[in-house]
Structure formats: structure tokens, C-alpha cells
Amino acid sequence: MSSQTAVLEKQNSKGLNITLWVVQTGAAAMFLMAGANKLSGNEQMVGMFQAIGIGQWFRYLTGSLEIIGGLLLLVPSLAGVGGLLLTGVMVGAVMTHIFIIGGNPAMAIVLLVASAFVAWGRRDRTLKLVRL
User: Fold this and answer.
1) Which residues of 48-58 are buried (b: 16+ CB within 10 A; e: fewer)?
2) In this structure, is the dihedral angle defined by the CA atoms of residues 24, 62, 113 and 104, taken in order, positive or negative?
3) N or C: which end of the chain has fewer CB within 10 A?
């Protein structure tokens, strides 16, 4: 590998890292806010989970997973784990919008893509955790 190629790869890696941090912090803010709304008993959230029909315990579970995932996105070594966790949560959210409660799933899709991007971008760190 030439030194010019190495420099370009380092620049690309730095750009990806910056992009990932921007996505991670934005997604973390959204998930922390959404989780807090669910856990605080926001009327809209209570109504939405009532429409889902599983029970309010599911609102608490979902809000807790969003808070945990949002916090994990802010910890460098655990951001990929947070991305994986939140990708699963958001797959459920998109499916719930499409098949159960209706409404526009656009925000859930955006957060799903953001979470999956973080999980992919931080996969090396996640694999290091698994190899311990």
C-alpha cells in the first residue's frame, strides 16, 4: 500500500468517525427524549400504547430500552451495542406503525436507519467486546 493510499484511508476513516459521532449524538438526543416521554406518562404515549393493546408495561419497557440505548450511543466502546439494541426497537416501531396503529412511520424509519448505521459503523468495537 502506498503512503498516498494510507493517507486517503485515514482521511476517510476520520470522516466516517465524525459522521458517526454526529449521527450518534443526534439519535441519542431523540431516543432520550422519546424514552423520557414514554416513562413520564405523556398522554400521547399512553394513548399510543393503549392503541397497541399489549398494556402499559410495554410503554415502560420500550421507554427504558430507548433510554438505555440512547445512553449507550454516547459511550464510545458501547455505541455499536446501543445501535444494535435501538435497531431492534425501531424495527418493532416501524412494524407497529404499519400493521397495528397506522400513522406515518417516517420518524421511526429515520431512527431505524440511524441506529443501523451506527451499529454498522461501530461493528469493530462491538466485535472486540464479544471477543473478550
Assistant:
1) bbeeeeeeeee
2) negative
3) C
C-alpha cell at 70: 440512547
Q: Which of the 8 DSSP states describes residue 122?
A: T
On whether the CB atoms of residues 109 and 123 are closer than 8 A, the answer is: no
What's the number of CA atoms in the CB half-sphere (13 Å) around residue 101?
19
111 close to 90: Cβ distance less than 8 angstroms = yes
Tell me if the pTM is above 0.85: yes
Residue 88, C-alpha cell as written in the block? 431492534
pLDDT in tens, 101-132: 999 999 999 999 999 999 999 999 999 998 86
Q: Enter the C-alpha cell of residue 36.
A: 423520557
What lies within 8 Å, CB to CB, of 16 at 6+ separation is 121
- Residue 47, Cα to own-chain centre: how many angstroms? 23
